[in-house]
Amino acid sequence: MKISGVILLVISICALILPGCSQISPSSEGSPATISTIENKGSDTIVNLALAWAEKYQEIRPSVQLSVTGGGSGTGIAALINGTVDIANASRRMKEEEKQKAIDNGSDPVEFIIAKDAIAIIVNLENPVDNLTLEQISDIYSGKINNWQELGGDDRPIVRLSRETNSGTHVYFLEEVIRLGQKENKTLFSSNTLLLPSSEGIGAEIRQNPNAIGYDGLGYVTDDLKVIGVAAVGSEVFILPSATTVNSGEYPIARDLYMYTNGTPTGAIQEYLDWIFSEDAQKIVEELGFVPVSK
Questions:
Q1: Chain centroid to CA 15
Q2: Could you tell me the CA-to-CA distances from 67 to 13, 188, 220 in Å, in that order?
Q3: Mean pLDDT, the chain, as a whole number?
Q4: Which residue of 87, 137, 190, 211 could cross-link 159, Cys pair, CB 3.0 to 4.6 Å?
Q5: Could you tell me if 230 and 151 are in contact, meaning their C-beta atoms sit under 8 angstroms apart?
C-alpha cells in the first residue's frame, strides 16, 4: 500500500501559530479539554510516512493535532534552528555547522532514527540496462558517461535527473554515490543534471522519457518504473533494493531517516515519538516501502 504523493498537506490547523501550542476546546460534556498541536516539517522523502503516522495517531489520540508539511530536509532543519517547528524530518543527518547554528540560536537538537530507506536507481521500462556499479552511477552523474551505449544499452543520450539541492536525498546521493563516500572527493553533479522538486516528479519524468535515469526512495517506486541492480565498489554482485537487502547490508545505497527535536522531548511530543517506535507505527513504515527500526 502506498499513499499518493503529497508534498504539502496540513493534517489539522491550530488557531495558534507557535509550535507545540495548545488550545482549549469544549469536550463532549461541555467542560474544557486541552488540545496539543505538534508542528512537523521537513523531508519530502518522509512526508508521506509522517502523514500516515499523523492520521493514525489522531485516531488514537484525538487530543493531539499534528500539522505535517514537506519542503525538504533543509527546510525542516532551518525551522528547527529558528524555533518554528516541534519536529524536523530529515533524510540526512544534521551537519555539524547546522547543529552549531542551532546551539548558537538557543536550540539543542536531539536526533531520532525513525526508519531506514533504500535509494533506488530507476530508469524507463524500455531501457535494456539492468545493472550498474556504484562507480558507473558516479560516472553518469558527474558527466563522464553520457550515452547509454557505453553501458550496454541503446545509442541514446543519458538524461540525468536529481532532487533539488535543498533535498536531503540530493545531499546523500552527492556524498555517498557520486563521491563514493570519500570525504576528500569533490566531484559534483554534471551541470546539465535536471533538478526536480519532488520524488514524484522524478518518477513522472522517467515514465515518459526512455533516456532518463533518476533516484528515489524505495517507497516512491512504482511498478511502472524499472529498478536497477547496484553493485558496491569493487563488487560484481548486483543487488536490488528491498527491506531484506537493506537490513542485511547487501544493498549499497541505504540510509537512516531522522526526526529532530529541540532538546529532549517532553509531554505530547515525547508520547508521539514513543508511539512512532511502536509495533503499530513501524508496520506503517513497512507498508509504505521503508525499512522498520526498533528504538
A1: 29
A2: 7, 36, 22
A3: 89
A4: 211
A5: no
Angle between helices 44-60 and 267-276 (to 10 degrees): 110
Residues in the chain: 295
All three cell numbers of 78: 532551518
The residues, any chain, with a CB within 8 Å of residue 168's CB and separated by 6 or more, are 43, 45, 72, 73, 74, 90, 91, 92
**DSSP for 39-94, written as a single string:** EEEE-HHHHHHHHHHHHHHHHH-TTEEEEEEEE-HHHHHHHHHHT--SEEEESSPP
Per-residue model confidence as pLDDT tens digits over 213-226: 999 999 899 999 99
Closest to 46 in 3D by CA, of 65, 73, 64 = 73
Confidence tier at 295 by pLDDT (50, 70, 90)? low
Domains belonging to the chain, first-starting first, are 22-116+257-287 (3.40.190.10), 118-254 (3.40.190.10)
CA dist., res. 226 & res. 243, Å (int): 18
Nearest Cα to Cα of residue 261 among 58, 56, 89: 89
